[in-house]
Write a structure and sequence with these properties.
Layout lengths: L10 E5 L8 H14 L4 E5 L5 H5 L11 H6 L4 H4 L1 E2 L5 E4 L8 H4 L9 H5 L12 E5 L6 H9 L2 E7 L8 H14 L5 E8 L6 H14 L12 H5 L7 H4 L4 H18 L1
Parallel strand pairs: 1-5, 1-6, 2-4, 2-5, 6-7
Antiparallel strand pairs: 3-4
Helix pairs in contact: 1-12
This protein binds adenosine-5'-diphosphate and magnesium ion.
C-alpha cells in the first residue's frame, strides 16, 4: 500500500463527544483497526491526556518519547511522533498526561487552534501514504477538541445508547458550527454512531428511534453492541480484531468501516 507517488491527502476524522465514557476511544481504536484490516493506511492521533488509545494499542508510557503534546507545543517533527503498532497498516501518535497542560500553555499562541491542522500537513506525512487519520478526542470541548475539529475533514460522534444520550449533542453541534464559521468551513459531520447498544433493553431501542428521527441519515446504519470483549481487549493491549476476531464487537467495527467507505462513494 505504500505508493509514494500518489498525491491524494488522507481523510482526517475527529471522534468527538464531550461526554466521557461514550465509546470515543473504543471506536477510534477499532474503527482504525478495521480500516487497516481492509488495507487502508491509518494513523490514530491520541488527543486525550489520559492516553487510553495509546495504551490500548500497546504503546508503553516509556515508549512515548515524542507525543501529541510535543507536536502541538514543541517543535518536534511529525516523523518522530509517529509510532508503529502491532497492527499492520496502523500507526499512532501517542499521548501522555503532559497534554493536559496544553490548553493553558497555548492560550497566548495566536495559532493555538491550528496547531494540529498544521502539524498534520507537514510534507513529511506524504511518506506514510496515509488513507485515514483518526483523532481520538478528550471528553471536553476544550482547545484540544477544537484543534481536532479545525484539522479534520469530518467528525464521528459516538452516542452511548442510554438515557440522556442526546443531551449535550446540541452543544457539540454548536461547537461544530462555530468551527465552521471561524476556521474550517468544510468541516462535515461524518455520522453519529450508536455504541454499547443492548438489544434486550427497550431504552437502547428508544435512543435509536430518537436519534434516527432527529438526525436521520446522519446516524450510521451500523450499531455497536454492548460486548464485553470490547472492554477487555485494551487491557491486553489489543484491538478487538486481534483479541477476538469473531466477536460481535469485531463484526460491528468491520461493518462500520465498510459503511464509512461506502458512504464516501456517494
Ligand atoms: P470514551 O473514550 O468516550 O471515554 P471509552 O471508549 O473509553 O469511552 O469507553 C468507556 C468504557 O466503556 C470503557 O471501559 C470501554 O471499554 C467500555 N466500552 C466502550 N464501548 C463498549 C461496548 N460497545 N461494549 C462494552 N463496553 C464498551
Ligand atoms: Mg477516551
Amino acid at each position: 500500500m505504500s505508493d509514494l507517488s500518489r498525491t491524494t491527502q488522507p481523510k482526517i476524522i475527529a471522534v468527538a463527544n464531550q461526554k466521557g465514557g461514550v465509546g470515543k476511544t473504543t471506536t477510534s481504536i477499532n474503527l482504525a483497526a478495521a480500516l487497516a484490516e481492509l488495507g487502508r493506511n491509518v494513523l490514530l492521533v491520541d488527543l486525550d491526556p489520559q492516553g487510553n488509545a495509546s495504551t490500548g494499542l500497546g504503546i508503553e508510557p516509556d515508549e512515548r518519547n515524542v507525543t501529541t503534546y510535543d507536536l502541538l507545543v514543541g517543535e518536534e517533527s511529525l516523523f518522530d511522533a509517529i509510532h508503529k503498532t502491532t497492527v499492520e497498516n496502523l500507526l499512532v501518535i501517542p499521548a501522555t498526561t503532559d497534554l493536559s497542560s496544553a490548553d493553558i500553555e497555548l492560550i497566548s499562541n495566536e495559532k493555538r487552534s491550528f496547531l494540529l491542522h498544521d502539524a498534520l500537513r507537514q510534507p513529511a506525512i506524504d511518506a506514510f501514504a496515509l488513507d485515514y487519520i483518526i483523532i481520538d478526542c478528550p471528553p471536553s470541548l476544550n482547545l484540544l477538541t477544537i484543534n481536532a475539529m479545525v484539522a479534520a475533514d469530518s467528525v464521528i460522534v459516538p452516542l452511548q445508547s442510554e438515557f440522556y444520550a442526546l443531551e449535550g449533542l446540541s452543544q457539540l453541534m454548536l461547537t461544530i458550527r462555530e468551527v465552521r464559521l471561524t476556521a474550517n468551513p468544510d468541516l462535515a459531520i461524518e455520522g453519529v454512531v450508536l455504541t454499547m447498544y443492548d438489544r434486550r433493553n427497550n431504552l437502547s431501542q428508544q435512543v435509536e428511534d430518537d436519534a434516527r428521527e432527529n438526525l436521520r441519515d446522519l446516524v450510521f446504519k451500523t450499531v455497536i453492541p454492548r460486548n464485553v470483549r470490547l472492554s477487555e481487549a485494551p487491557s491486553f493491549a489489543m484491538t478487538i480484531l486481534e483479541y477476538d476476531p469473531q466477536s460481535r464487537g469485531s463484526q460491528a467495527y468491520r461493518e462500520l468501516a465498510e459503511e464509512l467507505i461506502e458512504r464516501e462513494k456517494t
